[in-house]
């Protein structure tokens, strides 16, 4: 996998993925676009959500929705890395099995999510979940 990030001006940068998709990033605390740290956080939420949806479908669950809400704690001084990340999954569907939801959310953070596993080497990663209507 490859990517390229080009400086636009000020603290704005354009990232382009190997697959040809572009995204603007703003190092000015996200004034005009997501900051690079916000992109990392959204990447963790997206990657883990893929695992949750795939795991529930594999378990023959009638999943209809999944929202990953991420909260963090960061260091106060540079480098301002994340020290804690929690992902709260709000999963909806028809007659979802609580055990299945608990298993796929746990397995995502501990076994499958590439982004979370990379972050987990230096960040306390936790999760919670609920079935919503």
Automatic annotation (TrEMBL):
Organism of this sequence: Vibrio gelatinilyticus
Listed Pfam families: OsmC (PF02566)
Transmembrane residue ranges: none
This protein's name: OsmC family protein
């Amino acid at each position: 996998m490859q990517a390229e990030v080009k400086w636009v001006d000020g603290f704005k940068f354009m990232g382009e993925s190997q697959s040809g998709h572009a995204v603007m990033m703003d190092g000015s605390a996200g004034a005009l676009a997501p900051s690079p740290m916000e992109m990392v956080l959204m990447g963790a939420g997206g990657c883990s959500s893929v695992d949750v949806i795939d795991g529930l479908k594999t378990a023959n669950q009638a999943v209809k929705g999944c929202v990953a809400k991420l909260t963090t704690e960061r260091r106060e001084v540079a480098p301002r890395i994340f020290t804690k990340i929690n992902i709260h999954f709000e999963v909806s569907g028809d007659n979802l099995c609580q055990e299945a939801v608990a298993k796929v959310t746990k397995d995502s953070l501990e076994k499958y999510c590439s982004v979370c596993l990379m972050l987990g080497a230096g960040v306390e990663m936790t999760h919670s979940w609920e079935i919503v209507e």
